[in-house]
Amino acid sequence: MKTCMIGGAIYIPVDERNCPYFNDKNGICAASLSRMAIDSNRRAGHCSTEDYDNCPIFLARTLRKRHYELRMMDIELRKGN
Fold first, then answer.
1. Are 21 and 13 spatial neighbours (Cβ–Cβ below 8 Å)?
2. Is the Cα dihedral 2, 9, 27, 40 positive or negative?
3. 30 and 11 in contact (C-beta within 8 Å)?
4. Alpha carbon 66 to chain centroid distance?
5. CA atoms within 13 A on the CB side of 56
6. Predicted confidence (pLDDT) per residue in 4-39, tens digit
7. 18, 47 in Cβ contact below 8 A?
8. Contact, 16 vs 10, CB < 8 A?
């Protein structure tokens, strides 16, 4: 079973047919900085489909995460010099 880390601490099962950041029980999007509630239209169009990677909230989270990872790698490389 695949897992996903959110916020550096919580592991949740990842279903490749659904967004790994969406909590269907409470309707909250963990990809959002504000943990916003997702309306049924967005949920049907992105969160609960294989198209979740086209969601602007998911994409923004992915870019923020990747930027942070690259920044940390850069800091580690500079320490080595």
1. no
2. negative
3. no
4. 11
5. 2
6. 555 554 444 555 678 888 877 888 888 888 887 877
7. yes
8. no
